[in-house]
Amino acid sequence: MKRAIAITAALLAGACTMIDTQRAAPDDWPRLALYEHHVPVGELWRQCYPAMGLWAKLILATPEGCYRLSFDRMRCDMYFFKGYEDSRVTQHEREHCAGMDHPGDSTLHNAWTKWKTAHPDYKLAQ
Ligand SMILES: [Zn+2]
User: Fold this and answer.
1) Ligand 1: distance of its center to the CA of 62 in Å?
2) Sequential DSSP letters for 55-114
């Protein structure tokens, strides 16, 4: 079974602090169950590091939060650094879970299109 998982990380470096407010989420973005996990730094790294881009790893950026999305399970899990939550990071990850991409990026739009194509009976199941 194919799983559509999209992951990004918000970085202290600030490179992942903008959501594309000019482009709406897909009209048919599914209603996902949202889970916010406030975790110790080790767990944050475990969840978020794989989502960091190579450039972020090279500059030794530190993740502040990230999301893991599964259309198969219709859920979006967000991870934040327990005790150091930042409302901007929380809002940023919530917007990703709502289908919003970064400016110039189509990761979530593409992942949703790909998943729908692989699951043509999705509409019947709603
Ligand atoms: Zn982001």
Assistant:
1) 13
2) HHHHTT--EEEEEEEETTTTEEEEEEETT---HHHHHHHHHHHTTPPPTT--HHHHHHHH
